Amino acid sequence: MAENHGAILAEDLVKVYGGKVRAVDGVSFDVRPGEIFGFLGPNGAGKTTSVSMLSAGLRPTSGRAVVDGLEVSRNPEQVKRHIGVIFQESTADGDLTGRENLEIAAGAYGMGRAESRKRADELLEKMHLGDSSERYAKTYSGGMRRRLELAVGLVHQPRILFLDEPTLGLDPQGRAGFWEFIQKIRQENGTTVFVTTHYLDEADTLCERIAIIDHGKIVATGTPTELKDRLGGDIVTIKTATENPDMTGVLHALPGVNSLQKKDASYRVKCASGETFVPLAVEAVSKAGVGVTGVIVKRPSLDEVFLEFTGREYREEEGPTATDRAVMIQRVQQNLRGRR
Amino acid sequence: MLREFLALTRREFIKLRRNPQAIFTSLLLPLLYLLLFGQGFNINPAQYLPVGTPPGVIQDILHSYFRGAPNYYSYFSAGMVGFVAVTATLFLGANVIFDKLFGVFKRTRGTPAPSAAVFGSRLVAGSTQPIALAFFVLGLAVLFDHVPGLKGLQVTQSVGVVGVIYVVLAIVLLTLMFATLFLTFGVLIDVPQTYFAAVNVLNLPVLLTSDALYPWGSMPPWLQNISQYNPVSLAVNVLRETFFGSSAYPYSPAVYLLGLLAWSAVLIGIALALVRRALRPLE
Ligand SMILES: Nc1ncnc2c1ncn2[C@@H]1O[C@H](COP(=O)(O)OP(=O)(O)OP(=O)(O)O)[C@@H](O)[C@H]1O
Ligand SMILES: [Mg+2]
Questions:
Q1: What is the arithmetic mean of pLDDT over A316-335?
Q2: What ligand has the least distance to the C-alpha of A57?
Q3: Mean pLDDT in chain A?
Q4: CB-ligand 1 contact for A147 (6 Å cutoff)
Q5: Is the pLDDT of residue A3 over 50?
Q6: What are residue B150's phi and psi, to 5 degrees?
Q7: How far apart are CA A188 and CA A306, in angstroms?
Q8: Residue span of the structural domain in which B205 resides
Q9: pLDDT confidence of A337, banded at 50, 70, 90?
Q10: With a 6 A CB cut-off, is A45 part of the ligand 1 pocket?
Q11: What is the C-alpha to C-alpha distance for residues B265 and B177, in angstroms, rounded to an integer?
Q12: Are A204 and A267 members of one domain?
C-alpha cells in the first residue's frame, strides 16, 4: 500500500449491464485526500453506477478503482471499513427507532453493545436527532431521515464519504442544513467527500472540483471556476431601440468580445468581463445613434456549464432512471409505512 | 463475526417483537387445523367393519391404518407439528425481499458484516418463532385431550428423556432446514410475486407428499413409497414413534432422524453455497 496515495482513483472504469447497457464507459479521475469532489450528470448518466463500483458494491466490467490506497476489487471488505456511503434511496429501517438503526449499523461494523450505544449517542446529538432518537424512523421527516442516513454512514468514522444525491427531495433549509453537517465533519476529521448531485448551485458553492459525466463518459473536469471560465466568460445582452442600423460590427470591434449573436434588436455577447464591456458597449452604441433600452449581464453558472457539456437539461430515458426509481421507492415505502 | 451476528440478530428480534400481528396470524392456521380440520375429519375405519369382527382384528386394522396411533386425531396432530414447522418459515424469505425493497438490505450489505452473519442472524432469529409454534401446537393438541367434547393427542407410551430429545431434534432440524430453504429463496429472488410463486411450487408438493395429514392406511402404496423419503414425514415419524410406539414402523426414530439430518445437510449445503455466491462482497 503506497503511503502517498490519493483518496479515490478511478482508472478507465467500465460497467456494462446485461451485456448491452454501457452505463459507465471508461471513467477516470482522482480525488485528493480531504477534497470535496462533485460528480454531476443528467439522469441515467452513470453516477450511481460509478459510486457503486467505487464503494465495493458492484464489480466493474473492466478498469480499476483504488480507494484510500486499497484496490477495491481485491479488498472489498477492507474498503467498506474505510468508507461511508449514503445511498440515493433511503436505507433506514422504518420499524426501528433512530437509535436502534444506528446501534445495529455500529454492530454490523463489529462494535460491541456499549461502544455502539456511545457512538449512537454522539451521532444523534451531532445530527440534531437527539429528541427523536426513540421514535420509529418511519415517522421521521425527509430531512431527519437524510440526517439519520448520514449518521448511519458515519457510524464507523470513515475517512471517505460517498454521497449519492444526498439532498434529493429536501427543501432549501433541509439542503442547507445537511451541507452544514458535511462541512462540519470535513473540518473536524478531514473527511474526503465524493458527492453526486443534481443541484448545481450546491456543487458550485461546495465542491472544490467537479467532474461532469454524460452517457457514461466524463465530459469535463475542473474547479467550478475553471469550468465556468471555459464557457468564454460572461454573457451580456444589449437591447437596442431599433433593429437597424446593425450594431454587430460596432460591438464586435470592442475589446474582450469572444462571440456575438444578433436576434431582432438584441445582441447576445460572450465576453471576458461584463463589467468592463457594458460601459464601452453602451457608449459605442449610443455614439452610433442607437438608443440602448436594456442591458443584462449574466455570469455563467454551473447550469450553463452543465448544458454546454451535456447538451440538454434532462434526458428522455427509456424506462425509469435511478432517480425516478428512488422517488418511486420512497413513495411506496411511505404508503406501506402509513398503512402499517 | 460474533458481534456482527449478535447485532443483526438483535434487529430480527426487535422486528419480531414490533409485529405482534404476525405472531397472532401465525397462530391462526394451526388453531383452525386443530380445532376444525382435525376434529371434523376424525375418521374411524372401525365403524365400517361388519358387526362381529373380532376385537383383535379391529385392533390390527386400526394399528396399521394410523401406524400405532390410537385414533386419527392423535395421528394427525403429530403431523400438524411438522406441517407448522414448514409453513411458519415461509415469511422468512418474504422479509428478506421486503428489506430489499425498502433498501434496508442494501445498508446491511454495505457494511463489512460477513454473509454468514447476515444469513445466520435471520436463520437463528427467524427459526425461533416456527419452533415455538410447533411446540405450541404439540402442547395444545395434548391439552385438547383433556378438554371434554374435543379430540386431542393421546400419548400412549411413556416418553423418556431420549424421546424428548428425539422430538426436539426432529422439530429443530425440520424448521432449520425449511427456514434455510425459504431464506435462500428470499436472498436469490427480488420480486415478491416470484417468491410466493416459488414457495407455493415447493410448499404444497412437499406437504402433500408427506404423511403429515393423511392416515397411513388410506394412502396408496406409491404415495406411501414417496412419503417415506419426505423430510416432513421423517420428522413426523420420529414424533409418532415416540408418542405411540415403534411397532408400526420399520425403523427406529434414530434412523428417521439420520434421514432428516442427511436431507438437512444436503439442502443446507446447497443453499449456503448459493447464498454465499449471491452475497459476495462484489456482485
Ligand atoms: N441494474 C441495472 N440493470 C440494467 N441497467 C441499469 C441498472 N442500473 C442502472 N442501469 C442503467 O445504467 C444507466 C446508468 O444508471 P445510473 O443509475 O448509474 O445513473 P445515474 O447517473 O445515477 O442516474 P440518476 O441521476 O437518475 O440517479 C442508466 O441507463 C440505467 O438505466
Ligand atoms: Mg443515481
A1: 55
A2: 1
A3: 87
A4: no
A5: no
A6: -115, 145
A7: 32
A8: 2-282
A9: low
A10: yes
A11: 8
A12: no
The more confident residue out of B185 and A324 is: B185
Residue closest to B271 by CA, chosen among B188, B194, B172: B188
User: Regarding beta strands A62-67 and A70-71, do their DSSP bridges make them parallel or antiparallel, or are they unpaired?
Assistant: antiparallel
**Cβ separation of B3 and A110 shorter than 8 Å?**
yes
Closest alpha carbon within chain B to A104: B7
Instruction: Please check whether residues A142 and A265 belong to one and the same domain.
Output: no
State mean pLDDT over A252-271. 88
Which range marks the domain in which residue A51 is found? 8-222+322-339
Cβ pair B10:A104 closer than 8 A: yes
Helices A98-108 & B2-17, crossing angle to 10 degrees? 150
A312 pLDDT above the threshold of 80? no
Q: What pLDDT does A283 receive?
A: 92
For the CA of A24, the nearest atom of ligand 1? 14
Contact B101 A329 (CB under 8 A): yes
- Strand A8-17 vs strand A83-86: parallel, antiparallel, or unpaired? unpaired
Upstream peptide bond of B250 is cis (omega within 30 degrees of 0): no
Which band of pLDDT confidence, cut at 50, 70 and 90, is reported for residue A324? Answer: low
Does the distance separating the beta carbons of B104 and A93 come in below 8 Å?
Answer: yes
State pTM to two decimals.
0.85
Helix (H/G/I), strand (E/B), else coil: B150: coil
Under DSSP, is residue A27 helix (H, G, I), strand (E, B) or coil? Answer: strand
Q: What is the pLDDT of residues A59-82, one digit of tens each?
A: 999 999 999 999 999 999 999 999
Q: How many contacts, defined by CB atoms under 8 Å, are there between A and B?
A: 98
CA distance A156 to B111: 10
**CATH code assigned at A255:** 3.30.70.980
- Can you name the residues that pair with A218 across neighbouring β-strands? A213
Query: Ligand 2 centroid to A40 CA: how many Å?
Result: 10
Which residues of B are less than 8 Å from A110 in CB distance?
A: 3-4, 112-113
Which three cell numbers mark B64? 396399521
Mark whether A123 and A243 lie in a shared domain. no
